[in-house]
Amino acid sequence: MPQNAAIVGGGTTEWGARDATWKDLAQEAGKATFDDVDGIEPDDVEGLFVGAVQPERFAFQSHVAPLTAELLGINANKMIARTELACASGQAALRYAWLAIAAGQLDVALVLGVEKMNLGKEYMPEMQSNMTNVLDREFDGVNGLNGPSHFAQFAQRHMHEHGTTREQLAMVSVKNKNHAAETDFAQYRKRVDVDDVLDSYPIAPPLNLLDCSGITDGATGLLLVSEEKADELGAETAAYITGSGQSCMAGNSINNLPSMTTWPQAREASQEAYEQAGIDDPLRDIDVAEVHDCFSISEIIEYEQLGFCEPGEGGQFVEDGRSQLDGDVAVNPRGGLLGCGHPLGATGVSQALEIYRQFAGAVPSARAVAGDPETGLIHNLSGSGSVHSVMTLARDPQ
Asked: Where's the Thiolase C-terminal domain (predicted)?
């Protein structure tokens, strides 16, 4: 019989443009994670999974999983791996840890997402060049396509087909940045309004500066254990993984995407997770969701593809307040990528930690999800938007 796996705690560094090395970030997050969980020490960890996207280019360091084990004093005597799946690398690390515990290979796993991206303003061209590597560099890169210009195409087409407005895009950023103002590790902690977003510097029309996530240094860790180990620890709160789905339907080149307004990969990945978790109606059955708002248009399309509303209705969904803390489903209460920043390998790990903390009531009241949330979801896209990863979580095991 598969074992249930539970997140029993975690910790994070401060996110932003840090005067810290890759090693510093890994150690900070590792210490914060062990400090958060009574009864687990580095010696207890059997498996280590490190989500890291471009340490070779940003930190000039590869083979970072055993390096992390050394930094944290861990003997990962049963399993160790680094995961790389662009922006979904952190969730991939968590997924592999979950599968290892479910298979009975591990009882205790540490999942750590780490990214050092800021090299100083004088290196901005190199930093931006590094980011183009997650697209097809030979085909898409030579045509000038990077994150903002590519997602601007999604926004333009969605506006054309569905009447989505510039103000609705801005409402996503306002919601998430105002949540981030209450998040103590977030990169951006300044409250904004719609006019602030509309008046910010144009990057790739219709996307302005405040429609775009930042370049971020940061790390986050989680301790994942079997249900038996969670009981042994006497954990009062846990976030059990109830389902996981992943889909890559078009490779990575932008010209192979099946649509510029829908992401069938997200639908397929979410349906796989929903079936495993026994979720029939995600709008009714999911209390809190952390989704991949790398740009404001992303969250609007994700409302639609994850089943929170019908295709084309995402703009109205945010305008009607249905993704607010007291809405139909609370989306990105920590501030998302737009507010917290986006240290690539750490994002998916941080999303899962937020779900755990919402279950535990361990977040500031100003951004606590209304009611008593019992179910959650995390979502990441990666590359050109061709890969989508979805995981569902619950307070209680199935």
From this structure: 252-394
